Amino acid sequence: MTRLKKFFLAALFVWFCLVIWGAFFYAPRAAGFKGESARIVFFHVPQAWVAVVAFCVNLVASIQYLRRRDLMDDIRAAASARLGLLFSVLATVSGSLFAKVMWGSFWNWDPREVSIAILLLIYAAYFALRQAVPDPERRGTLAAAYAILAFVTMPFLVFVVPRIYWSLHPDTIINVQGKIQMESRMFQVLMGSVLGFTGLFWWLYSLETRLARLRLFRDQRGE
Amino acid sequence: MPAPESLFWVAAVTVGIWLGIFLYCLRLERRLRRLEEEEGL
Amino acid sequence: MTLEKLPGEIRSLSLLRESLTVLRKELVSELRSRVALSSVGLFALTTLIAVAYQIGPYRIHEQDRPHLHSALLWIILFFAASSGLPRVFVKEEDAHTAKTLRLAARPAAVFTGKLLFNLLLLLGLEAFLVPLFAVFMGFAVKNIGAFFLVLAAGGLGLAASSTTVAAIIARASGSSTLFVVLAVPLVLPMLVFLIQGTRMAATAADWTAALPALRAVLSLTGVTLVTSAFLFPVVWHD
């Protein structure tokens, strides 16, 4: 492992410990929420953020695959999709836990909740499609086509629907005035957590792609 | 000893989870490095 | 490269005529076997009867009716249509006529022709189901014009998404389960808007109440069609 990598991983570890401490002790209690339950936002929001990042990485890799037909691009698409699925599930679970504490039920059919559910369905469909195609090149093409098609549909759900319909979701960072309404210390911890989770995503993504690349190498040599 | 329901324990569990994830990924990282060196990548 | 080998007559066809030729072929082959028509029609009828028997016009409160009716209508429409929509591409692969079609027509024409067929299938299904639905369920609409607009927009929107997904799964396993699994996440936002639009048409006398929903459906459809224009040739010629 290079020195830079070692430094990055050590820094990531320390950073996360700091974020966790900050989430529970440095950030103040949030007004208007039940007890300490609002602290989950420091984990829930970054998970949702990473899910979106993974979706975008998948889109870029899919487009690249269709342009270059390089199997590595397909590997990147699959890896980011897997991670996107993982973080979407985490975001849904943390969101449900918060919903249970705050409003008494795990699921409320709020538009944002529905969009994350649809994102999960898209990922499930994506992997179902991949499994249905044995040929690696065709698999890459069809999966990429579906991913791109899904990507253009999502913004409607994520951005348009919550604007039109009333939402249970606490007033998010992108609100009517476009200003940030969170207390400054909470905001600091939140941004720190987002940074940490992004770093974690990058590490997991590189691990997944390296593993898949090794497998590809082995398969190609075995032929 | 902090009170059983205090935030301290939630934070401790969270740190524990993070430690678990981190060590697991570190092990993966080392394994991958070894395999990659074998392949001459 | 392959078009040079074809007779001059075909080479000079415009895209529209090529698409209409594809459409005509689809219609002829479908009318001959009537597989899609019967499965779609029967699915819709059976589901409607099952639902109407249990729910019927009088079991729901007056104020809940628009919500429930709108949702049920589009659910039955979409799932009934799913039994027939993927056929446009899957039957080509099954009958091994796909290769000939690839040589004979441009991808754009193939897509448009089959899209038009699916659109006609959906509109036909709507024409068949909606009157029956109105009778069996006691479904009443305050603004018929808005309702027709929603039905038309829905037909086009569902046809657009379904045709592209059908093209993708036809090159995969071609199974109808895979079609539904892939189509539902893409179609769900559109269904949400369509149900909303139908509810507006059912409850509001003014047709502009359905406008936001219509706008959303049409923009979704537009985006899907533009993306399909790029994606279809890639999938088709894979």
Major sheet description of chain B: none
Main β-sheet description of chain C: none
Distance between the termini of chain B: 52 Å
Number of helices of chain C: 10
Low-confidence residue ranges of chain B = none
Give the percentage of residues in beta strands of chain B. Answer: under 5%
* Gyration radius of chain C, in Å: 19 Å
Beta-strand content of chain C: under 5%
- Poorly predicted segments of chain C: none
What is the count of β-strands of chain C?
0
- Average pLDDT metric of chain C: 88
Roughly how much helix do the residues of chain B carry, as a percent range? over 70%
Note the gap between the termini of chain C: 16 Å
Structural class from helices and strands of chain B? mainly alpha
What shape does the CA trace of chain C take?
globular
Structure description:
The complex is a heterotrimer of chains A (223), B (41) and C (238). With 223 residues, chain A is mostly helical. Chain A has 6 helices and no strands. By secondary structure, chain B is mainly α. Chain B contains 1 helix and no strands. The longest helix of chain B is centred in the middle third of the chain and has 33 residues. Chain C is an all-alpha fold. In chain C, helix 4 crosses helix 7 and helix 8 runs antiparallel to helix 9. Chains in contact: A-B, A-C. At the A-C interface, helix 4 and helix 5 of A face helix 8, helix 9 and helix 10 of C.
